[in-house]
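Subject: Interface between my chains keeps coming out wrong

I've been trying for a while to get a sensible model of this assembly. When I model each chain on its own everything looks fine, but I need the whole thing in one frame so I can look at the contacts. Pasting all components below, labels as-is. Any help appreciated, I'm running out of ideas.
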Amino acid sequence: MPVIEAHGVGHAYGDRTVLRDLDVTLGEHRVGVVGANGSGKSTFARMLNGLVLPTQGRVTVDGLDTRTRGRDVRRRVGFCFTDPDAQIVMPTVAEDVAFGLRRRGLTKAEVAERVTTALATYGLAGHADHPAHLLSGGQKQLLALASVLVTEPDVLVMDEPTTLLDLRNATMISRVVAGLPQQVLLVTHHLDLLEGFDRVLVFDEGRVVCDDEPDAAVGYYRKLMG
Amino acid sequence: MSPLGLYVAGDSPVHRAPAGVKLLVMVAAGVGSVFLRAPWQVAVALAVVLLAYAVAGLAPRTIVRQVRPLLWVGLATAVFHVVVNGWQRALVVVGVLAVLVLLAALVTLTTRTTDLVDAVVTACRPLRVLRVDPDRVGLMIALGIRCVPVVVGLAEDVRDAQRARGLAASPRAFAVPLIVRSLRHADALGEALAARGLDD
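Reply #2:
Try treating it as a single job with all components included. I did that and got this:
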């Protein structure tokens, strides 16, 4: 399992401090992150693949600093966003999955084979040549997930992947995620998705205020918000 | 439904023709159309394009959908030319417009975006001398095509939000939120491209 470490991490957008004094080492298979809107959890998630570089301290993935080894970190850490529409960059389903495989030295046949396998795995086999905008919300999120996982990352970071989905689609996504061999860090407002997780961090006003197993952490979070 | 004709899977000779060839034919037709003078020449061109649609196995419904957005522009152009240049010229101008739009739509309907983009990237290779990155040009085209349905969706959201709040349709109350949302979408898209290793 890869090890993600944050050493004395802080972050500010201009005058607004969104994260402070963060020191965590994450080596568990399933890590959840919860917290109110604006608590800094999205910024934290974006630091794990170098999308956001901390203004203080450093973040490493298996010892690779996101600041100096951003490219290598991004190869290991896949990222899934809340809004799949923003994440799907190519007009049709198969093309979007293939996008992540560009410049990897694969032949056209190898790319096609990996794309076909990924689409079949995530239940999109019949949609290969369909325009991405005609998929349902749940299918779009599955496509976004397939496009990330086809590149075989070691870690998957997901920033509220089910927030825009209905219950059926949210359940489907969580079932897919539960079956992944990868290390997963899931930021979510759907607290029941954290069942079976190894560890949950609660963010509040830019700090980790609770770091525990799911039941205790979710209980703390409910009390904090109540 | 997107106003852009998007790839319809198929295995006809039109589908199998190399994307570069199709683009060249399109450019040649565009240049050649300038020389069309008589209505019968336009009729022949139209017949050829419609034949190509038939070969590609596309339904008549699809053909109608490609030219429908032209209706008002075509009508205005026709009226103008009938008044100024006579009905024959009007027929030629509007006919050429329809032929070119149909041809362009046929190319997008029968060519995967990836192939189209690859052809453009190949064509842009010589521009490396001018420090143009051909892959960047290709990505721009793909993103452009992808963004049409997304922005149409954003526009529908903005209109719905206005209706829900009972606001009268004012152009500014429509344009401002649409632009703001489009820019936010662009930001998110940029983030997604970075996360997917574009610049690595």
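Reply #3:
Confirming on my end. Residues 122 and 134 of chain B are 7 Å apart (CA to CA).
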